[in-house]
Design brief:
With 73 residues, the chain is an all-alpha fold. It is built from three helices and no strands.
Length: 73
């Protein structure tokens, strides 16, 4: 019982290693972080970059009047 309590409290497991307080959730977290890191390191497709550039150009040419109207909506 003492080993189970120490493990549950973040102590050492039977082999003397640090026990993972989150258990299997830690593995899920690691996998999600790896997936997210891979996702954000991907390049943005050219089509999306072109669309973003067009949007920025329209916002700049519309000026503050268009921004004021959109703020009211």
């Amino acid at each position: 019982m003492k080993t189970a309590r120490a493990t549950a409290a973040g102590g050492l497991d039977r082999a003397g290693r640090r026990a993972d307080p989150l258990g299997t959730n830690s593995e899920i977290g690691r996998k999600l972080k790896q997936y997210y890191d891979d996702l954000i390191s991907e390049a943005v497709p050219d089509k999306f970059q072109d669309l973003l550039k067009q949007l920025e150009e329209r916002e700049q040419t519309a000026g503050p009047a268009a921004a004021a109207v959109s703020d009211r909506e």
